[in-house]
Amino acid sequence: MYRVKVDWAPAYELLSSMHAYLGRADRKIMDLGASWAKSVQQQLRPDVAAELAIYKDASPAHAAELLVWLCPGERDAAGFVYWVGALSPGELYEYLAPYVLDKHAPLLRDLPAQISTLARLLTAWEEQYFRGLDPAILDGLAADAAAKRALVKTMAPRELVELATGGIDYRSAPDVETVLLVPQYHYRPWNVYDLYRGLKVYQYPVDAVTPVPGTPTPGLLRLTRTC
Would you say 202 and 178 are in contact if contact means Cβ atoms under 8 Å apart? Predict the structure, then answer.
């Protein structure tokens, strides 16, 4: 049986928010929807929006979320971007190689160039979008991570994964030793998952902000979209 770890840092949501913006095909099924993406695009400088559009159609930088977990320093948005941008190719491979499954996600030869591009785009994304994010969202994600972390001591790993993900009954693959749970807001109501050597990552959805009294809850709004 695998063990469960719970992790969270603002850098996870920095990446999740940019990937949600880039995932055009996903916007129709995300809570934030296409209107959110349009409003964000209006916040971005034209040159940044254009480069993000090109980046979306290129091979995405591999294992960026994994790098947040492995980051040894500050994992706020600015600290993480600085650390990633300063990594040498050798350091990058040294961090990622132990976790990569060659049959599923091999380390790409141009990975250093991809990470360099990612760091540059994340810098602009942090300045033009993420810095203005409602702090209550990050506070809510941190609180949910703390609550789930407390449950690690009292719940069976399989039950905790099912609770966090909203119903995924994950039965361990033979080579998975750890399931990493990370709360996320921008891809709600969906789980985002990755598989590495010995490690399964679930970024699970959290309604991090309490609805204004008298307004519909996120769950009710999702029901109306399916009717």
Answer: no
